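Q: My labmate handed me this sequence with no annotations at all. I'd like to see what the chain might look like in three dimensions before we decide whether it's worth expressing. Could you predict it?
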Amino acid sequence: MVSRREFLQRTAALAVASGSGAGCTAADDEHAYAEAIRKTWRHGEGVVAEEAAMLRELVRYATLAPSSHNTQCWRFRPGERSVSILPDYQRRCPAVDPDDHHLFVSLGCATENLVEAARAMGWHGEARFEPGRDAVHVALSPATVHATPLFEAIPVRQCTRGEYDGKPVAADELALLERAARSDRVRLALLTERAAIEQVLELVVQGNTAQMNDRAFVEELKSWIRFNGADAVRLGDGLYSASSGNPTVPGWLGRAMFDLFFTTKAENDKYARHLRSSAGVAVFVGEADDRAHWVEVGRAYQRFALQATALGIRNAFVNQPVEVPALRSEFARLVGTATMRPDLVVRFGRGPTLPPSLRRPVQAVLA
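A: Here is what I predict for the chain of 367 residues:
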């Protein structure tokens, strides 16, 4: 078995060799990716007067929300002063998310982005979950233009899957994070003591080990990895390798080498570094275990993530303790919510940014 360093060296050499004589170079890929990022992660030109154009702009902001494996598992249906956000079941992840929990959390994240963007354009968004359609309906009414710090953070936010600086977050900043996530339907537990973080790490490692031994999980994850800028731009979804600090290589090479370096030990070691470099762990728990509350969890998390971004604090998911059913009860006891299902586990801290992921165009997500 080669080491990770040897893998990177061999991969780089093979990537260079495979690119020689090709019509499209790595530099071309990087330019196309950089241009796509510039067009994707941006603010608009402010208040949009024409209603149809305004609704499309709200949808664009909503698509900048996170989703499981960046599947973008949503569809948007603009109406008269309204937008409905519907699940796209063709983009579900049955191995990691068999009950569509993360899918509906993702709809909640998109909802929060849309509501924040509406406020900045002079509209009040009133969101409600409609069980008959499994959709979120956002009704819009005129309001005072108010661009909040959370809105300003939308095109900067990312799930930063790298090491942080290990320094604590100040108490006043933790209070801002708690306030941003506050909801009468969602509980937030912030774990900042090193002993508690080590307990979370132990369960993350157990969960990751179980997932790494599940071939369906591994194959599903691999299908959503975009190993180079060209594939990321062409598809506009999935997990771009560089966003996790990994090298970009031709797709055929990345898929061929995936099993070589994506090992249980390597992943567990990575999560140990990531959690031990974090300032803390945030755990989101819905007051009920149903789709309406999963959406509310997504909204609460998104406010947390946007507030963190406004403060220069990074975050990333470490959801293994809630994704593996056998670990949920023990994890719930750890965070003091033994009678409820924990929904999301998020590490946070300060650290560098990484290349962001991409999004599909608005036209592709309209229902």
